[in-house]
Design brief:
alpha/beta, Amidase signature (AS) enzymes, 2 domains, eleven-stranded mixed beta sheet, 11 strands
Length: 458
C-alpha cells in the first residue's frame, strides 16, 4: 500500500490488489499510538473494525463510493456506542446512534477507526486546550497542531486514516489543515447536518472534512452533503447555487497589504506572495480588496456570539467548573453576561457587514487570505493562550458569520519545514468550485501530502 489516498485505495480494491481486510490489518499492525502526540481520544476495538472490513469484502468494490476507506471522527461528533467527550471527560455521554453525517459515510462504505482529540468544547484554534495534553504538530512536536479539530488533522497527516471529520465555527478545520499540510473543507453552513454534534455556536457550526487532496475532500463531501429535516439549521442548495468557473480565467481578491498581519513571520509573508504568483499562473487576475467588512464581522464572534457559545455548554460549566480547563471557562463563562439587547445589536451590525461583504462578489470570484498569519510553539501558547489564539483566528473568524464556503489548501513550507496554508473563500454553495481550484493549485505549491513521504500529482 503506497498511500491512503482515496483514489488509490478504490483503484486497488477494484483491481483486487488488496481488500478492505488487508488495509485494515495493515493499519492495525501499524497502530503505534504515540502518547505524546495526543491525536486520539479513543481508538475503536480491533474486532469491530475487522468486522466492518470483512462485511465489505463480501461486496463488489465498485458498489459503494467510499468502499473500504478508513476515517476518523472528531470527538464532539456522535459515533454509535462510543462516548462523546467534546474534550471533557466529565461531560461524556454514550450515544445510541451516530450523527447523520457519520451514518452517511458508513453507509457509503467508509470504516471508522476512532475518535480524535480536540480543543475542549471546540473552543480554540491551537489543539493545546485539552485535559489529555496538547496535540502536537505532525511535522515538529514542539509546535501546535492547530485546532480545534487537532487530532483529526494529525491522524490524516500521519497516514493513519484517509480522511477525518472535523467541525469549524471559527477556523477549527482550516487552521489545523494549514499547520499539517492538508486540505481543509469548511463547507457552506447547513450543507452537512450538524445533528449529533456538541454545539459550539449552533447557528454557525459546520461539519467538514480534512483530507490529503482536494479530490479526496470533494469525494467525501459529496457523500456527506444532504438536507436533514430534523436539523433546523440544515438547508439544501438553491437552484441557482454559486457555481464558479475557475477552470481558466478568474479574478481573486487580495487584501490590502496594510490589512494583512503575519505577526513577524516573514516566511509566511513570503509564501503568501508566492501563492499569489501561482494563482496568476493558473489564469487568475489579482484584484485589490478591502478586507475590513470581513474583519469587522470576525470581531463579533467573541462579542455577541459568545452568548450562543455559553448557551451550548454554560450550564455544565456552571455546575462543574472544576471539570473544565481554566482557559475554556475564561472564554465561555462571560457569555452569561451578554444582554439580549447586545445580541440583537450584534445581529443588526452583522447584516450591515454582510451587505458590504457581498459587494465583493461583484468584483471577484474568490477571496484569498493566509489561513493563519503564523504558527506558534506549544510553549508560547501556554504562556499567552488567549491573545495568541486570537491571532490565529484573524483570517477565519468571519467565514461562517458571513455565510461563506472556504477551503484551506497547502501552499508551501517555511525553511524550518513547517507548512503554510492558503484559504480560498467564496459565497455560499461555491464549495465544489473552490475545491476544484484547490486541486489545481496544490500540486504547483507543494508536492508533499500531509507529513508523509508522498507526492501529489499535478
Amino acid at each position: 500500500m503506497s498511500s491512503l489516498r482515496i483514489s488509490e485505495l478504490l483503484a486497488g480494491y477494484r483491481t483486487r490488489q488488496f481488500s478492505p481486510v488487508d488495509i485494515i490489518e495493515e493499519l492495525l499492525r501499524a497502530r503505534t499510538v504515540q502518547p505524546e502526540r495526543h491525536e486520539w481520544i479513543a481508538l475503536l476495538p480491533p474486532a469491530g473494525v475487522r468486522e466492518r472490513a470483512r462485511a465489505l469484502a463480501a461486496r463488489a468494490a465498485d458498489s459503494l463510493p467510499l468502499y473500504g476507506i478508513p476515517f476518523a471522527v472528531k470527538d464532539n461528533i456522535d459515533l454509535e456506542d462510543v462516548p462523546t467527550t467534546a474534550g471533557c471527560p466529565e461531560y461524556a455521554y454514550t450515544p445510541a446512534a451516530s450523527a447523520p453525517v457519520v451514518e452517511r459515510l458508513i453507509a457509503a462504505g467508509a470504516i471508522p477507526v476512532g475518535k480524535t482529540s480536540l480543543d475542549q468544547f471546540a473552543t480554540g484554534l491551537t489543539g493545546a486546550r485539552s485535559p489529555l495534553g496538547a496535540c502536537r504538530n505532525s511535522f515538529d512536536t514542539r509546535f501546535i497542531s492547530g485546532g480545534s479539530s487537532s487530532g483529526s488533522a494529525v491522524a490524516v497527516a500521519t497516514g493513519q486514516v484517509s480522511f477525518a471529520l472535523g467541525t469549524d465555527t471559527a477556523g477549527s478545520i482550516r487552521v489545523p489543515a494549514a499547520f499539517n499540510n492538508l486540505i481543509g473543507l469548511k463547507p457552506t453552513r447547513g450543507s452537512l447536518s450538524t445533528r449529533g454534534v456538541v454545539p459550539a455556536c449552533r447557528s454557525i457550526d459546520c461539519v467538514g472534512v480534512l483530507a490529503l487532496t482536494a479530490a479526496d475532500a470533494a469525494r467525501v463531501a459529496t457523500v456527506a452533503r444532504a438536507f436533514d429535516a430534523q436539523d433546523p439549521y440544515s438547508r439544501a442548495a438553491p437552484p441557482a447555487a454559486a457555481v464558479l468557473d475557475l477552470a481558466r480565467e478568474f479574478r481573486f481578491g487580495v487584501p490590502d497589504a496594510a490589512q494583512l498581519q503575519f505577526f513577524g513571520d516573514a516566511e509566511y509573508q513570503r509564501l503568501f506572495a508566492s501563492a499569489i504568483s501561482t494563482l496568476v499562473s493558473l489564469g487568475g487576475t489579482p484584484v485589490p480588496v478591502d478586507l475590513e467588512p470581513f474583519l469587522a464581522a470576525g470581531r463579533l464572534l467573541y462579542g455577541p456570539w459568545l452568548a450562543e457559545r455559553y448557551s451550548a455548554v454554560g450550564a455544565f460549566i456552571d455546575a462543574r467548573p472544576e471539570a473544565v480547563l481554566p482557559v475554556t471557562r475564561a472564554l465561555i463563562s462571560p457569555g452569561r453576561l451578554i444582554a439580549a439587547t447586545e445580541a440583537f445589536m450584534g445581529q443588526h451590525r452583522l447584516e450591515e457587514l454582510k451587505r458590504a461583504a457581498d459587494e465583493l462578489w461583484r468584483r471577484v470570484d474568490v477571496l484569498i487570505t493566509p489561513t493563519a498569519g503564523t504558527i506558534y510553539t506549544i510553549a508560547a501558547i501556554e504562556t499567552d493562550p488567549i491573545a495568541l489564539n486570537a491571532n490565529l483566528s484573524l483570517y477565519t473568524n468571519f467565514t461562517n458569520l458571513l455565510d461563506l464556503a472556504s477551503v484551506a489548501v497547502p501552499a508551501g513550507f517555511r525553511s524550518d519545514g513547517l507548512p503554510f496554508g492558503l484559504s480560498l473563500s467564496g459565497p455560499a454553495w461555491s464549495d465544489d468550485s473552490l475545491l476544484a481550484l484547490a486541486g489545481r493549485f496544490q500540486p504547483l505549491a507543494t508536492r508533499t501530502l500531509g507529513a508523509l513521504a508522498l507526492e501529489s500529482s499535478p
